[in-house]
Design brief:
- By secondary structure, this protein is mainly α.
- It has 2 helices and no strands.
- It has helices at 4-27, 45-52.
- The longest helix has 24 residues, at 4-27.
- The chain is rod-shaped, with a radius of gyration of 31 Å.
């Protein structure tokens, strides 16, 4: 006959293996969705001016040409 300690060890090992199997089984069920590709945002003319050290933002503002 099995002792109470052996039964407890067997149960704990079985539960650990069961939990591990469930975790590994669920890790393969990842849901992946495609996101719409967005074009990269351009920096505002003032930020480009600061980054380049230019005295004016006019060369970087395409809609405000004279």
């Amino acid at each position: 006959m099995l002792s109470n300690d052996k039964i407890m060890k067997t149960k704990s090992i079985f539960l650990c293996l069961l939990a591990g199997t469930l975790l590994l089984g669920q890790s393969g069920c990842a849901v992946r969705t495609k996101h719409a590709h967005k074009p990269p945002k351009t920096m505002p003319p003032g930020q480009v001016k600061k980054a380049t050290g230019s005295p004016s933002a006019a060369p970087y503002a395409p809609g405000h040409r004279k």
